[in-house]
Structures are given as C-alpha cells and as structure tokens.
Amino acid sequence: xxxxxxxxxxxxxxxxxxxxxxxxxxxxxIFGLLGPNGAGKTTTMKILCTLLKPTSGDAFVxxxxxxxxxxxxxxxxxxxxxxxxxxxxxxxxxNLDLHGRLYGMGINERRSRIDELLExxxxxxxxxxQVKKLSGGMKRKLEVIRGIMHSPDILILDxxxxxxxxxxxxTIWRHIEEISEDVTIILxxxxxxxxxxxxxxxxxxxxxxIVALDSxxxxxxxxxxxxxxxxxxxxxxxxxRLKAVSDGLTGLATHISLxxxxxxxxxKSASAVLPEVxxxxxxxxxxxxxxxxxxxxxxxxxxxxxxxxxxxGDEHGGT
Amino acid sequence: MxxxxxxxxxxxxxxxRYLRAKSxxxxxxxxxxxxxxxxxxxxxxxxxxxxxxxxxxFISPGIAAMVVLFTGVFSGVSVVWDRQFGFLRExxxxxxSRFSIALGxxxxxxxxAFVQGLIMVAVSMLIGFRPAGNNLLLxxxxxxxxxxxxxxxxxxxxxxxxDIHGFxxxxxxxxxxxxxxxxxxxxxxxxxxxxxxxxxxxxxxYSVDALRWSTTGYAFFNPILSIAVIFLSCFLFxxxxxxxxxxxxxx
Lengths: 319, 251
Ligand SMILES: Nc1ncnc2c1ncn2[C@@H]1O[C@H](COP(=O)(O)OP(=O)(O)OP(=O)(O)O)[C@@H](O)[C@H]1O
Ligand SMILES: [Mg+2]
Prior knowledge:
The complex is a heterodimer. Chain A has helices spanning 41-48, 70-76, 92-102, 107-120, 136-148, 166-179, 192-198, 216-222, 239-248, 270-283, 299-307; strands at residues 3-12, 15-25, 30-34, 56-61, 64-65, 77-80, 154-158, 184-188, 201-206, 209-214, 226-232, 253-259, 262-267, 289-295. Chain A is of the alpha/beta class. Chain B is 74% helix and 0% strand. The A-B interface holds A 46, 49-53, 71, 74-75, 77, 79, 81, 83-90, 94, 98-99, 101-104, 146 and B 1-2, 5-6, 8-9, 12-13, 16-17, 20-21, 85-97, 249-251.
C-alpha cells in the first residue's frame, strides 16, 4: 500500500473537518476524493502532505507516518494545492527551477524537464515572464507542472484542473493517465466527468466522513441500474406530489429525488417499474407530465445522491 | 537532497525579489536617512561628556544599525506574506528540513538588510562621515551578524502572527523601542540608570557600540564584550527562529 489512512481526525476549534476516516491506496492507483464544499478533502490532503498535524489517528505514506516521519513522507510526495502557492514575483522558469533544486534535481535534469513540461501545457512563450503577469489558468497550469516536475512516487492533486480550459484539462488528464502506471495519485475534484474518467476508486466525503468508497462503476450500480426522469410543468410539481410518488413506489425505487421540474427515480430496471410509475401518476390529478426519459446513472448522480448537495433540492428524497 | 541547496535557493529567491522591488531600496532607507540628516543638523554642535568624536561620526554607525534592524525585522516578518500568498506551502512540503528553510530565509533577509546598511553608510559618507581605523574590516562582519540576528527575530515573530496587520504593532512596540534603547542617537550614559539597565539587555546596543568602535575607535563597552554578545545573540536567535518555525502549521 502506498498510502494508508487510519482513523484520521482533524478538529479546528469546534469544527470536525475530518471525522475518523480510513482508506488505503495501492501503488499505481488513481484515487479520487469527492464531496461537496467543506467536506474535508483539502484538510485530508494537507494532513497527508504533513502541513497539518492530525488531531488523532495517523496516515502513512510508503510506510512512513505523517506524525513521526514527516520529512520522509515529504520526500515521496508531489503536491498541487487548491490555492496558488507560486511566487508571483519570480518568473515561470524561476519558480520551476527553484522547485527542482528544492527536490535535489541536477541542473541538466531541471533544464530538460522544464522544457518538456512547458511544452506540454503550451507555456514555452511565458518562460521568462513574471508569474503575476499570467492569467489565472496559466498560473494553474504552471502549478500543476511544478507539482509533477520532480517525478514523485506519490502525487497529491487538490482540484488540479480547477479553472483550466477544456483542451488543457484534457492534456492534463492524458498526462496523468500516462504517468499513473508508476505513480500513486490522490486527487480531489468537483468535475465528476474527471473522476469517472481517471479514478480507479473514489471516496465520497461528506461532513468529514467517507460515505462511500468504491470504483466509479460499482458506485453507479449501487444507486440503481437506470434512472427514470419525469419532467413536469413547473406549477405542477411540489413536495407533496414528490412524496406521493415516493409512497406509491415503495420497494421499487432505490432513490427518488426532485431536480428542478423533474422527479428522478433510481431503479433496477426501468421497463419493469415504468407501469407502476404511470399508475401512481394517474392517481395524482391535475398533473401534466411533459416528458419521460430513461438514462444510465453517471457518477454525478451518485455524488448528488450521496452528498446531499443542497442545490439539487433533494432534501426530501426518499430511499 | 542537499540541504545546502535548499538554503541556497531560498537565499537566492530573497535576493531576486529584493533586486526586483526597487521601491524596497528607497523605502527602507528613507526614514533612517531623515533621522541621520535632521539629527546631525540639529545636534551638530552638541558635545556629550566623555564622547571624543563628532556627532556625525557618532550617529552614522547607529543609523546603519537602524537600517539593518528595520530591514531585517521586516524581511523576517514577511514570512507572513509568504504564508498568506501560499508560497510557504510550496517550501514546507518540500523535503528540505525546517532548519534549512529558516536558515535560507534568514540569510536571504540578512543579506538584503546588510546591503541596505552598506548603502546607508555610503549615504552617511556623503554628509561627512569618515570611517577610519584599524578595525574597519570588522564593520561588514558585525553589520551582517546584526542583520542576521534581527532577521531571525523577525522570523520568530512571524511564527506567532496570524496576518500582516500585526506588523504595525511590531514596529511600534518592538522595533522603535529597540532602536531608541540602543544608544544609536545619544550615549547611554545620558540615560537614567534604570533605562540604561534596559539598554544593556538590548542586543542592538552592543551592535551599535561595536559598529561605532570599528569605524571611529570610540566605544562605551569593551569591544571584545560587544563582539561576543553579537555572535552569541546571532546564534541564539537563529536557533530560536528555526525552532519556532519548525513547529508552525501552515494552513
Ligand atoms: N484552517 C482552518 N481553520 C478552521 N477551519 C477550517 C480550516 N481549514 C478548513 N476548515 C474547515 O474544515 C472543513 C473542511 O474544509 P476543507 O477545506 O477540507 O473542505 P474541502 O472538502 O476541501 O472543500 P472544497 O471543495 O470547498 O475545497 C470546513 O468546514 C472548513 O470550514
Ligand atoms: Mg478543498
């Protein structure tokens, strides 16, 4: 195991940011940390890279404890933080060169690696430009290539593609996949597509706890094989009606939630449940169903189901 | 990895930032310059009992010490900026030891403070300061060690500061009292005895005295004592700052 997290707890004042979590990551695995804002992803990662000390519990990187051997842990890591950690007064090259030296890279190795990485993200022309003169996305690119520059054994990426354009995001994904054979990667993201595409396994966090941990495929299967989406006129749909649908389908659906003007019903098999759904709808008078759609769940559905994201309006969702 | 590499890059980074920010050069010399100019005008005919040198010679080494005091403390405290701008995290997750990081930072800040101090000496010479004597070569050494001491103190202070807003408090309640209690502007013997006792506890007092001795030959303490205090306090504060620094969490 490359990374092992054991009963990890971090408390800030009266906020329990990380609440006794456990997971382990194998060598060469890409492990995703998902969860709504404030779930505890960044805190977990900061403990892993020894910036924060655990309140209790411990984490091990290649067998070294973040409590007892922080320096050994740091030697194994490459980190990209959620917020910028560049020196904006220095140039792009200087930031990378400083990083290389800090990690003991020789001058030739630094030069060739810097050329290679700048080319990867199309920043060659900005080599000698002060970082404060770069756009937000360019800074992010620089931050990401700096984190992987010294070819670490373990990469910790906190929302690496935040603010990057679609093409660059794809470039970074491709690169992460390329290096992932030998590198263990822990990454957090709010882009479900990214997690689904890259991660071997994901942990969904909520309020400091891990509420689900599995491969994206199994997680999707867990919430149901198919989703029936019923869309309504906006005036027709409300919480009581959702409840009526929910009551009528007890035992048939794994999860029912309200999403805007639509009710989403997670089921094993849509064709088997659809007649029952229609039956229930008939009992609700004055309701016009505008459309019925059947689709496969995505990781986003899993996420919304598990993390209870308030914007999805599913506080009333049954199970 | 080479810890020396880490010390070197952090030192180099400070220097690069210093050379890039022209306003820092003038900014930190401005106030000491006015102190020098107005005090030496105002007191040019004053004679302190027992002091055999003219006032410009008396005050100039003190003003050089003032520059390294202010610039050094400021450089050290600016670790708080690095924390706010996030760069500190980049260093703190690297394999470099906390001690190397603090040392590199202290050496970088001390070097810029030292250069500023030398610039101040050059300015003093324009208004009539004439350093002389057999111990002139000790001057840069002592000035640098003083810069290192106060940069370390600045770093130590930065570890207990949450944000840069506290800097004004540091200046008003630490830097200025240290300066006024150092004998830079007038001889310690002019002070009431309890204030003089306080001055004896101030490391800058010994720096000012030794710097004055190395450029003019006049000293209040035995120079051996002052030099010993300078070396000792530099060593102690360097240790203290790296100890405090190694215990900080960087969020
Ligand atoms: N330095 C701190 N002091 C106090 N509370 C903190 C600190 N850092 C984080 N928290 C709290 O800990 C909780 C978890 O924060 P964390 O940054 O780990 O969330 P996150 O999952 O990374 O969220 P996001 O998706 O918004 O980045 C939040 O409630 C946050 O307010
Ligand atoms: Mg975060």
